[in-house]
UniProtKB/TrEMBL annotation:
Signal peptide: none annotated. This is FLYWCH-type domain-containing protein. Keywords: Metal-binding, Zinc, Zinc-finger. Residues 55-110, 135-198 form the FLYWCH-type domain. Gene3D superfamilies: 2.20.25.240. Pfam families: FLYWCH (PF04500). GO terms for molecular function: zinc ion binding. Coiled coil: none annotated. It comes from the Eukaryota.
Amino acid sequence: MNGYRLRLERSSNKGIVYWRCVKGNCRGRVNISKGKIIKKQPHDHEPPDYVGLDFIYSQRGHPLLIIDDYLFRHNRGHYWRCIGCTKYSCRSRVILKPGRQPWCIGEHTHPQETEKIRCGSPPVAVWIPNPKVIFTETERGRQLLNFRGYTYKKETTFKTSINWICAEDKENRNGACNARCVTRQDGAIKLGRRRHNHSNTLT
């Protein structure tokens, strides 16, 4: 809401829903009744920069959503649940709708998944909505796409999608890199099954 992320705190018997800022020490609050804001308490910080969503994928190949260094797996519809739901009885949820910022529901009952995220890798052959991508151009005006530290150049343009191939032209000791990805008009990206055979070029 207005660039801030809110977490569901509780609901009353009178139908009032209480939301509060996800930042621990912030006093920002919003109370909603019948779809209307009836009370609002200001935040004590500027809204965070929202640049999209990030994912890794599980050992079984399922995409995991990263929010504030916690991991969520898709449950149903627009709902994602924390991967600690079984081990830690964590009831934290995320509502994720296209074009909107994620809504966090419930507190986590366990530490953040920083190490899992650091060692993880992005999902392949599945569409990733609202990814953290950066578009740049070469001196000759050729468009490039940067995603998770790798740079891709445009290969083929279709009516509703664009195919990209790794921009690492020079062959390394592992041979030429044929890693590919596809982007759609709605901003989603899908990585090909071929992995990069070199380290990423961006930090």
